[in-house]
Amino acid sequence: MGQLIKKGKQGPSKNYITRKKAIRKLQLTLNDFRRLCILKGIVPREPPSRKKANHGNSKATSFYYIKDINYLAHEPVLQKLRQHKTFMKKLTKALGRSEWSRAKGLEENRPVYKLDHIVKERYPTFIDAVRDIDDALCLVFLGANLTSHEYIPKEGLEDCARLAAEWQLFVMHTRALRKVFLSIKGIYYQAEVAGQTITWVVPYQFTQKIPIDVDWRVMLTFLEFYKTLLGFVFYKLYTDTALVYPPPLDVKKDEAAGGVDAYTLEHAPDPNAADGGVTTAKKVSNARGRMISGKDVSKTIKTLEADGNADEEAGPTHDTAEPLATAAAVATTPSDDALPSTEEFIAHPSSSTPSDPNESNLMTLHTLSHLPTASSTAANLFSAYTIYISRESPRHILEFIIRSFGGKVGWPATAGSGSPFDEDDESITHIVIDRPVVDGVAVVGEVSDAKRRRKYVQPQWIVDSINAGKVLVEEPYGRGKILPPHLSPFNAEGEGAYDPLAALPGLEDTLEEQAAADEEDEVEDVSDVDEGEDEEMEEDEEEDIVIAPPTKKAKAPSPPSRVSPSKKSTKSDQKEANKKAKVRIDAKHAANEDAIRKAELAAERLGIEPAEFDDAIKKAALKSRKDERQKEVVVKSGEGASEENMAKMLLNNKKRKLYARMKTVQARKGSEKQLLEQKKIALVKKQRKDARA
User: Fold this and answer.
1) CA–CA separation, 461 vs 476, rounded Å?
2) What's the number of CA atoms in the CB half-sphere (13 Å) around residue 112?
3) Which of 216, 291, 458, 613 is the most exposed place for a label (fewest CB within 10 A)?
4) How far is CA 58 from the centre of its chain?
5) What band does 133 get if pLDDT is binned at 50, 70 and 90?
6) Burial readout 122-160 (b: 16 or more C-beta within 10 A, e: otherwise)
């Protein structure tokens, strides 16, 4: 007989704990518990059975893993929070007794905690940290655009502005920006840094209204952790790019609204420089126990280059392996940081087929890294342009975007100091202007040819050119013109979603089919014919070609007449009827050449124009293709439905319901996509109709 299991010792009641019990166990207040959970990344969990997890109580509450709470019990920050609680009691007591010297001493020894170890725990590798800075950047840029408030300390906002400027400087320096979208909510940016795609949103520079229903203590806790995280990431990014971090700040430019230009990028000193640069490379030891630094490696490489030149002058030799082995023994596998960045493959002549190493066509790693790529071409999109931003355009936004793609930017003094050129510069190629055209304004003075060649565009031209990957034509974005639609470059819905920029498959066929249907609607309705004509029509339909003269609409029956109808018709009426004869072709066998030939001969006898006959053939072919596509869809859906039903039989009830919800969402998205495609077809049709008119 097995051992009896007591109630509450296994299952959800053992693995989960309520928030109230967790606070009691850690001996914390609710605010400190929230702060600790935010810093450590611990979130509430949903147990499989709330009643079992809460020992039979079905009251709504938050649950946490018991392992996470035990993990928090050993956190160093928890000890600091307890020390801070004791410190506040002592400080309040000293201030109440007017013991100012004791209160000053307590204030100087205020307990302060650091979050460095938490960042290292949550992000074991640098790539993990880079992949998770999207939310951090959004919050930092939001704080940089806020004003000082009683709930928001001024020092925190200054740190946000500094981190935002440092990020923009790095993106501009590395030209990592890829996409931009101007939305009502803000400006969406997307960049590629360290092989990761990073997307963040920046609010417009308007006066932000501070909401009162936001818990700023929670927001400031997130901001506190994000500032530490971004400090780690920015230091690594700057040092890997051989830049000094943090970049020095020019206080005068900052006070004069210099923005990002108030910070200066400085290159780190080269450890291998001849002017006594500080050696930061790690030293490694060789097989003989001797410590080797980056300087020794560079000297060895220079010696190899000199030996190679001497060998070329003396002719090829068979003993080239010996000096290479000696050099390898002297410098054995230095670290990546110790290797100079200018190391390149050195071509040596072959001992069997001596030749000039300079004429070798071998592709080296250094050569491959410097080949032009699509991303490098897009990063230099505006490198050949000098753009001047007018006073009403958002200078900080456009400056960041243009400089990230290699362009030169200038602005008036009213938008801030630090502009590299003024409006009278002859090298300006584009002027970004965002105000309407004023009639009746005369140009005073002479205008040079360089100023006449300037192109005035609206800010959307810059963003659309970036998203298109090429410089667009400036005419649709001219001053005072109605701008084209600004489409989002982000495909948030994933594969299968509607893409307004993608060409619709079969768009031309659909437009031709609708045009043919419209033409058929304009034709008068054909009335019923007599039995003899019906028999002839049936015989013609067997050949899938119908040549039918038009008949007038049905009228009220006239009184019988003794005159034969054949005598009333004349030759002129017959010719007129033959000219108005129409061709109708069944789409089932529109590719039948024999039937089409017979119909063509019949059309010639009736006097039908060849162009009209060709249009009828074309309409029948379009309808035939449409019917074939519909049949293929029906066949595929039938096969897929049978397989789908067999697979659904193997699912349990829970998964079957989940699958049904997934199919409902997919059907809704498919109907929305189909509706948007129909709107696009109608818009293209209207545009073509207006163009023909």
Assistant:
1) 9
2) 8
3) 291
4) 44
5) very high
6) bbeeeeebbbbbbebbbbbbbbbbbeeeeebeeebbebb
What is the SS3 assignment for 139? helix
643 CB neighbour count, 10 Å cutoff = 9
What the block records as the tokens of 170 is: 């790095």
Hey, what amino acid is at 348?
H
Q: In angstroms, rounded to a whole number, what is the distance separating the alpha carbons of residues 524 and 550?
A: 9
The more confidently predicted of residues 368 and 151 is: 151
Number of neighbours of residue 360 by Cβ within 10 angstroms: 14
Which residue do the tokens 């050195």 mark? Answer: 346
- What is the rounded distance in angstroms from the CA atom of residue 58 to the CA atom of residue 55? 9
Categorise residue 446: left if φ over 0, alpha if ψ from -120 to 50, beta otherwise.
beta
- Indicate whether 532 pLDDT > 80: no
Please give the average per-residue pLDDT across 367-396, as a whole number: 74
* pLDDT given at position 1: 53
According to the 3-state scheme, what is the secondary structure of 543-599? Answer: CCEEEECCCCCCCCCCCCCCCCHHHHCCHHHHHHHHHCCEEEECCCCCCCHHHHHHH
Q: What is the pTM of this model?
A: 0.64
Exposed, middle or buried: residue 429 (CB in 10 Å: 0-12, 13-18, 19+)?
A: middle
Per residue in 157-170, pLDDT tens?
889 999 999 999 99
Among the residue ranges 305-309, 492-496, 616-620, the one predicted with the least confidence is 305-309
Is 367:343 a contact under the CB 8 Å cutoff? no
Whether pLDDT at 114 is above 60: yes
Distance of CA 385 to the CA centre of its chain: 25
Q: Which two tokens stand for residue 321?
A: 């392996």
Instruction: Print the SS3 string covering 65-97.
Output: EHHHHHHHCCCHHHHHHHHHHHHHHHHHHHHHC
Return the residue matching tokens 């630090």.
Answer: 418
Q: Quote the strand ranges of 169-324, DSSP E.
A: 177-182, 187-193, 196-202, 284-285, 291-292
Are the C-beta atoms of residues 233 and 133 closer than 8 Å to each other?
A: yes
- Helix (H, G, I), strand (E, B), or coil: what is residue 402? helix
Helices (H), 319-364: 321-330
Q: Which has the closest alpha carbon to 466: 418, 526, 407?
A: 407
CA–CA gap between residue 281 and residue 296 (Å, rounded): 11
Contact 419, 411 (CB under 8 A): yes
Phi/psi for 191 (5° steps) reads -135, 160
Contact 390, 434 (CB under 8 A): yes
Per-residue pLDDT band at 189 (split at 50, 70, 90): very high
